[in-house]
User: Fold this.
Amino acid sequence: MQADPRVAKLIGGISSSHVPAIGGAIAGKRQGDPYWKPFFDGFVAVRAWLEQQRPDAAIVVYNDHGLNFFLDKMPTFAVGAAPWYVSADEGWGIPTIPPVPGDQLLSWAIIDGVVEDEFDIVTCQEMLIDHAVSVPLQLLWPDGPPPVRIVPISVNTVQHPLPSAARCLKFGQSIGRAVREYAADLRVVVISTGGLSHQLEGERAGFINPEFDALCLNALVNEPAKLTAYSSRELVALAGSQGVEILNWIVGRGILGGAAREVLRNYHVPISNTASAVQVLEAA
Ligand code: DHB
Ligand code: FE
Assistant:
C-alpha cells in the first residue's frame, strides 16, 4: 500500500542510551578499542536502516540534565519550537556539536495537537541541547551534520515528582496523533534517548539490572502498556535513579502508536556506569 503523501509518516523509532563518555570516545576515535567496539558495532545496522529510511525530520525525546532547565524551573514536558538548537558545554569534557536545525512547522503541529489533548506543556523557542541529544545524533550520523530537522521534546526524569509511565505513554500517543494529522509530505523518525538501568550517585551507584532491562526491551516492542504498571518510584527502584530515563523511551514508543516490528537491538554492559542499549522499531 502506498503511503498517503499528504500527511506526515512516522517511519519508526530508534531508542539509545546517551552516556557522555560515548562523546569522548567519538572525539578520541576510540570506537575500535576493545572496551568500545561491542557498543559502537551495535550502531552499524542502525545506520544502515536509517540510510534506507531517509527521514526528513526527527523527534528527539530526551531529558535535559541541568543545561537548559535547572532545578529551579523544571517542566514536566517541554517541546522545542526553535529554528536552531545549540549544544553547550555541560562540564563533561566532550565536544559540542554544530547547531542543529529545527523543524518549526512540525514543532507547532505537535504543540497544537498535544495542547488540544490537554497536555499543558512548555514551548521553547530557544532551547540548549545537552549530551542526551548531541551524543545520539553523533552515533546515528557520525560523518557530518544530521540530514534532518529536529523537534526536541524534553521529559523531566530528573526532579521528583516525575511524570508516570502511563502519562508518558499517553503523551507519546498524543504526539503521534499530531504527527499523523500533520499535512506535509514528511518522513519522521523518533529518537528516544537515555537508560537503560543506571544509577550515578549514592549507596547504589553503579547499580544495573539486566533482567529489568530485558523486560523493558521486550515490552516496548508490542506491550508498552505493561510498563505503565510501574510508578516512577518503582522504576527508580528497578532501574536506578537515572534508569528512570526509560520514561523517554516510553514516550517515544507512544509516538509510534499501534503495532511495531523490532528491527534490531543491541545491549551491552557497562558503558561508563550504564547498561547501554539501542533498539530500532518500525511502525507496522
Ligand atoms: C552517565 C549516564 C547518563 O545517562 C548520563 O546522563 C550521564 C552519565 C554515565 O553512565 O556515566
Ligand atoms: Fe542521562
Q: What stands out?
A: The two ends are 12 Å apart (CA to CA). The pocket of 3,4-dihydroxybenzoic acid (ligand 1) is lined by residues 18-21, 65, 194, 198, 200, 242, 245, 272-274 (CB under 6 Å).
